[in-house]
Design brief:
The protein is an alpha+beta fold. The protein has eight helices and seven strands. It folds into two domains: 37-287, CorA soluble domain-like (Beta Polymerase, domain 2), CATH 3.30.460.20; 291-354, Magnesium transport protein CorA, transmembrane region (Methane Monooxygenase Hydroxylase, Chain G, domain 1, Up-down Bundle). Helix content is 49%, strand content 14%. It has a seven-stranded mixed sheet with strand order 2-1-3-7-6-5-4, with helices on both faces. It is rod-shaped.
Length: 360
């Protein structure tokens, strides 16, 4: 029974871009990235403005005039715009390098006037992949820069801002950064659950003995889960780093909510570890089932060989060309010989049956 495989094994390769030995802070132009699109969302408890702009200098019209200004950049292809933003917000060269080289692990760092966060958004379609979202969190602004991505995973945050759902418009920029990070982490849940559903679909055919076509898929699922875990685990480290006070940009009020994000991350890691253990158990079950089948075949061949060994011996003895051999001159010697061979065969079969070799 062959099940369709809808989880792609191929993933985007690791690409550091900057040559080995380059000076720290060296930023190179990303390949195959779309042109950068800038969206500004400025808000307060009683105000909300959302505008897509082309010139980064227009951002100055919003900074300081609203409680919080969220500048979101989609795509890394326009280095001129990104360079203008780096100059406007006085980003450290290492921060600018990490933004343009989206192979960073999740982290949280303090740079004096702002905090720098990196989170990785998981995607399952068209293939398993993670996309980097970099965030610069200042006193009253959040600058988020996202790789080109086929899906807008931050739209739920925009909807909450537009409709003033919850307390997001009541709190500051640090809470917005938390909300963005929490949205990224929450999007891991449906992806991990997809792998759990696939394992459930595999379990029954595997138990029925259809293992040949399933083992490669189990291996792919285990490998994909390891990839997700490798990208998710640093988020917990970053969140706990923020909770410990190492990134003072986040207030005590926001730290309380970070505990929830930390709990979600732990739940995901536990689920991934459980699913990977299931994959390991399925592989062990396959090997045990294969070994059992081999033992059954070996046992059958052993029974057949053991039954025919004495018969072959008797046939070999009476096949020798000696003149004076028992039963050769008897009228019914041939019949007696067959009766002897049949008796020996049934004696061995009865002995094997008494020892339980025919059970199962």
């Amino acid at each position: 029974m062959k099940l369709p495989i809808d989880l792609h094994f191929l993933r985007r390769p690791f690409d550091r871009r900057s040559p080995p030995g380059s000076a720290p802070g060296t930023a190179t132009k990303p390949d195959d990235e779309v042109s950068s699109q800038i969206t500004v969302t400025a808000y307060g408890p009683n105000e909300f403005v959302e505008q897509q702009i082309d010139d980064p200098e227009q951002i100055r019209e919003y900074l300081g005039k609203h409680d919080v200004t969220w500048i979101h950049v989609h795509g890394l292809g326009d280095t001129a715009k990104l360079g203008s933003l780096a100059h406007m917000f006085e980003l450290h060269p290492l921060v600018y390098e990490d933004i343009l080289h989206p192979h960073q692990r999740a982290k949280a760092e303090e740079y004096g006037d702002y905090a720098f966060l990196v989170v990785r958004m998981v995607e399952l379609e068209p293939r398993l992949d993670t996309r980097q979202i970099s965030m610069v969190v200042g006193e009253n602004y959040v600058l988020s820069i996202e790789e080109d991505c086929p899906h807008d995973r931050l739209e739920p945050i925009r909807l909450r801002l537009r409709k003033a759902v919850g307390r997001i418009r009541q709190l500051g920029a640090d809470y917005l950064a938390y909300a963005l990070m929490d949205s990224v982490i929450d999007h891991y849940f449906p992806v991990v659950e997809t792998f759990g559903d696939r394992l459930d679909q595999i379990d029954d055919p595997l138990a029925a003995g259809y293992t040949t076509d399933l083992i490669p898929e189990i291996q792919r699922i285990s490998s994909d889960l390891l990839t997700i875990r490798r990208n998710l685990l640093p988020h917990r480290e970053a969140i706990r780093n923020m909770m410990s006070g190492a990134v003072p940009r986040f207030s005590d009020n926001t730290t309380v909510f970070l505990r929830d994000a930390d709990d979600h991350t732990s739940q995901l890691l536990d689920a991934i570890d459980a699913y990977r253990q299931i994959c390991s158990d399925m592989r062990d079950f396959h090997f045990a089932l294969t070994s059992q089948r081999a033992n059954e075949v070996t046992k059958t061949l052993t029974i057949i060989a053991t039954v025919f060994i004495p018969l072959s011996f008797i046939a070999g003895v009476y096949g020798m060309n000696f003149e004076n051999m028992p039963w050769q001159q008897m009228k019914d010697g041939y019949v007696y010989l067959w009766l002897l061979m049949t008796l020996v065969a049934f004696a061995f079969i009865g002995w094997f049956y008494a020892r339980g070799w025919f059970k199962g």
